[in-house]
Amino acid sequence: QAKGFQTGADGQLSKEQQLAQEQVLELLPMVSESNAVSEELNKHKSFEVILISGAANPTEGSKGTKYHSYRVMVKMKNLLNGNTWLWERGKFMNRRYLMQDMYQRHLDGDETLKDMPEDQDAFWDPPCEVLIGTSSAFLQALGYGIDMDDPILITDYKGEDQVRCLLTFPCDETGKCMGEEYFVEDSSELLGKPYHYKVTMKSCEIRDSRFNVGSFIKYKIDGDEEYTVTPTVTESLAPEFNHSRVVKIDKVTQETLEYFENSCITFLLYGCQEDRESDVKLIKLTTKELRQREETSGNIKTNALTRQLTKNTVDESAMLKTEILVLKRRNDILAKKEKRIQGIVTAWGKKLPEEQQFEPYHRAISAAAFNTGTMLKSAATVITQVIKAQKLVGAMTGVNGVNADVPMVSKAAGSKACVMM
Q: Residue 121 CA to chain centroid, in angstroms?
């Protein structure tokens, strides 16, 4: 059962985590071997086992998008210009066999290795788009009609922040923001109604100068067959994507509300690469010296695997932040509505007795109360009961001769009831 090391606070790993650990343990000696061959052949490449967040590895199933815990990959890095490639386990295994063949030919004194075409070199790949980082935008706020205007962090596979640029908020079919008045206390109020929300990506700042060549973001929303891809912005480390998309839901169902409550939109930030001229000082160094320099500068962190293995599939801190944001927004909106109710009560309390007509007062209170939570709705219900009681008292006064000097409930008790509520 023991395979070399165990991670986690209590030593308990899920099946996917165990599988990831087994793959890491399998690949580590192979990666070390590949680095040794690279040094021997002086290929100026280094290899590293990395774990990519499950958010970057979604698969479509019958019940929607599923996110795996981890994705074990091998990163190859050009030590001369910094370009990187992420290889699937299968691709790395195939390349490893080619590397072993090249090394054997090197031991046999094969001089043709020096003039080997690039497309036959196991250590060569053309420049390609590379995943810079991922981010998950949780959607609980949409279930209450609340906009999410806080920037969302995109982090790389080491958990380091890269960019902030994403927004989502409810809107109408034209993309116009609904505003705070669209707030609903109970998400079930949306059932059976059409719903629209807007995904916006404005701009971001990228730290790695290599991606000045170009960058773009792609993402999938539940039900999409293909990724939505922003235009590629070139020659900028602060790209202005200015991308927006209105998502239309014809009819909100219980499945829609569950999607808002439990799911997220995953954004993938990609950077473009190109072959660049290498620093003359670096060309003079051997592969072994370059790798030692990388390790000394801290670019290769040996504790990265442990840190990644102990992370959860879904970023819990981001989820908690979203939940706190939803609660805060709901509290702010209800506080404003409560203040409005108090203002109405205070204004009516200052009116002259002959101006304190209850029907307009009741309409004003109801208009505010039924746009907020259940407590204010209860207040409106109490006021309705007071009206019925007042009519009953009036009837009793006319029929049974009840003393007319008894103070009417509508003048003071109504206001006090509202203040107490």
A: 39
